């Protein structure tokens, strides 16, 4: 399998169901940090649910409608990037990420997202890459900006939360902007 160097001590690699224990350990280190921002179904709580999350993305990859990759730093899984959705028919995908606090501030997510977005645009013909985040997720918005995305708008009350509903910000970049 491929490994793409992100820094001298970090790389991007496919994240597969057989990585469930590593994925769970990563989630355990960042659970409180990412829980406000990601869907509850993503934040696995045991080895079986971790395997199911990764299997769902493996199935998406096999169907050509999504995918997930891990960021390993000094041999430890610290986060990753994913395509929540990918439709070559429509030419649209949605990218996302997660990262544990100890790995923040090093450009790992931006570099990893740039790599998979570039692949989607150049190799798969994706025209529009979306980045959707709950309003108030300043770190995620900062990544979208660093990726050259434009803020399309806010979908008010679009995300259910334990406390009610949350607004979602939609950011995007189009293929001609990406390749310019």
TrEMBL record:
PANTHER family: ACETYLTRANSFERASE, RIBOSOMAL-PROTEIN-SERINE ACETYLTRANSFERASE. Residues 10-177 form the N-acetyltransferase domain. This is Protein N-acetyltransferase, RimJ/RimL family. InterPro entries: Acyl_CoA_acyltransferase (IPR016181), GNAT_dom (IPR000182), Ribosomal_N-acetyltransferase (IPR051908). It holds the Pfam family Acetyltransf_3. The lineage of its organism: Bacteria, Bacillati, Actinomycetota, Actinomycetes, Micromonosporales. It comes from Micromonospora tulbaghiae. PROSITE patterns: GNAT. It comes from the Bacteria.
